[in-house]
Amino acid sequence: MAETKPRATREAYGATLVSLVEEGLNVCAVDADLAGSTKLGVLGAAYPDRFVDVGIAEQDMVGVASGLSLTGRTVFCGSFAVFATGRAYDQIRNTVCDSGLDVKVCPTHAGITVGEDGATHQSLEDIGMMRALPQMRVLVPADYDSAAACLRLAAATPGPLYVRMGRHPVPALYDEGFAAELGGSRVLREGRDVAIVACGVEVSQALAAADILASDGIEVHVVDAYSVSPLDEEAVLAAAERCGRVVTVEEHSTATGLGAAVAELLGERRPCPVHRLGMTTFGTSAPAADLLAHFGLDAQGIARQVRGFCQG
Amino acid sequence: MDTRDLRLAANAMRHDVIRMLAQSKSGHPGGSLSAADIVAALFFSGVMDYDAGNPDDHTGDRFFLSKGHAAPILYAAYHRLGWLSDDDLMTLRQLGSKLQGHPDSHACPGVEVCSGSLGQGLSVSAGCALGLKIDAAAVGATPRQVFCLLGDGELQEGSNWEALMFAAHRGLDNLCAIVDLNNLQIDGHVTDVCSLGDIDAKLAAFGWGVTRVDGHDVAAVVTALTAVKAAAGAPQAVVCETVKGKGVSFMEDQASWHGNAPSPEQAATALAELDAERDAIEKEA
């Protein structure tokens, strides 16, 4: 792999947009006073006319992005995921999605791995809110290169699209050759005892959990379901067929996120035991690694719960 | 069009609004009628430079109806442009219609963005104005103008004030916010429900140029909009004093006519009043 040092998916945001501008695409981005955190600042520094900062005004951010899209641009906008979606949900629903505008909502700082900022800043409902919207496609990349690929896919795909990125560094799983597809997924480990379907930072945690479980004699099948909506239904059905039981893992509410999407699919198409790992409460303040452990979403926690599920 | 023809156009559009709503038995007459003269000034005076023959052409000046519940007056304008047929008008709010309850960009030719959830149009207009300004600057051209029509009750939505700040900060002098100041919202007079206070002073304090006109004096509206197009350095607001339900005596200044359709009898009365007004305008020299 070209890159092995852990990097946050958010690092791909500004860097990829700079590349897209240099490749001649008519893209621009709108930020809401968090360009340093969202890593969009590099775009503004390199191409001031491609970057707009509206200040602390997420509703205006989505509206301005919408208006810019009506001048022929492909427009990205983002903030912390909790504000980019919850604060501007009506704009995303009624202006962006209902009109089918070429606006990409690409927030960073999703999930509990925001860490120390605590519950108010940890978005746990955004996947659910976005996947409920007609027209909206939802991508949750697991590492830097897949995040860059998802952003490229967003630029190449007309209409509304959501790319959920995080603050916490994650190990490299792919390389620059990763090509994201709507409705795509990747099988990262093959096993026959239990399938784990994960997205975002939880993919690398699930792989580490699979290593732990292998030493117990449990062979885990791991799917990176980066395209949460549309979901790679065939890959999920195949995993269920192969293993007979499915665990989902996400740093998001289990009520509406990837786990819900997988459970809905399997309930309708191939009923089997499903265990959803994720969040059922608000988060709290702590370093990201401590939070993953606290909520049972690190490798050890996932392994422990998968073991119990397999024995249950 | 001269002033007399603009007044006749506004009258005819009011006529269409009443016919549409009576047919659909649903819709918003009050804010459609209050905006009729403003819409006539925008679409038919020449102040807005656009391709009247092609609803899909968005290379000219742009218009966004932020107060989407006034969709009937927009549809009436489109009807006069030939973008909608009379038969289309009679399908308002019915299954499969181009004339959705609030403007729908997929259903209706000419509509660029779905609107109706209040407080969103000014941000969209600002983003559009910014994009046009950047594009024009790149080739040394004068940017196209963006007009956005808002209700006064709508200005209670806080998102407008985000947009007002942003547009002034970016010096979007190709953006014009037109406020249909009819002082009524669903629950009553704006000044009673939650007053905007001195709206002109607030807009000015936010860095906008402000012009106040009688929103039923078409000539005055045209003059104000023409001046706005020539203004430089700051976004411009034209605050139009209007009467909700204007042109139909029993609807005027009545909150109850915000979102209720007239019965056949009420519609007949309203249309007779509008016919009388039309005859009076036609008799003027």
Automatic annotation (TrEMBL), chain A:
<dbReference type="Pfam" id="PF02779">
    <property type="entry name" value="Transket_pyr"/>
</dbReference>
<feature type="domain" description="Transketolase-like pyrimidine-binding">
    <location>
        <begin position="7"/>
        <end position="172"/>
    </location>
</feature>
<dbReference type="InterPro" id="IPR005475">
    <property type="entry name" value="Transketolase-like_Pyr-bd"/>
</dbReference>
<dbReference type="InterPro" id="IPR051157">
    <property type="entry name" value="PDH/Transketolase"/>
</dbReference>
<keyword id="KW-0786">Thiamine pyrophosphate</keyword>
<dbReference type="InterPro" id="IPR009014">
    <property type="entry name" value="Transketo_C/PFOR_II"/>
</dbReference>
<protein>
    <submittedName>
        <fullName>Transketolase</fullName>
    </submittedName>
</protein>
<dbReference type="GO" id="GO:0000287">
    <property type="term" value="F:magnesium ion binding"/>
</dbReference>
<dbReference type="InterPro" id="IPR033248">
    <property type="entry name" value="Transketolase_C"/>
</dbReference>
<dbReference type="InterPro" id="IPR029061">
    <property type="entry name" value="THDP-binding"/>
</dbReference>
<dbReference type="Pfam" id="PF02780">
    <property type="entry name" value="Transketolase_C"/>
</dbReference>
<comment type="similarity">
    <text>Belongs to the transketolase family.</text>
</comment>
Automatic annotation (TrEMBL), chain B:
<comment type="similarity">
    <text>Belongs to the transketolase family.</text>
</comment>
<feature type="domain" description="Transketolase N-terminal">
    <location>
        <begin position="9"/>
        <end position="264"/>
    </location>
</feature>
<keyword id="KW-0786">Thiamine pyrophosphate</keyword>
<dbReference type="InterPro" id="IPR029061">
    <property type="entry name" value="THDP-binding"/>
</dbReference>
<protein>
    <submittedName>
        <fullName>Transketolase</fullName>
    </submittedName>
</protein>
<dbReference type="InterPro" id="IPR005474">
    <property type="entry name" value="Transketolase_N"/>
</dbReference>
<dbReference type="Pfam" id="PF00456">
    <property type="entry name" value="Transketolase_N"/>
</dbReference>
<dbReference type="GO" id="GO:0000287">
    <property type="term" value="F:magnesium ion binding"/>
</dbReference>
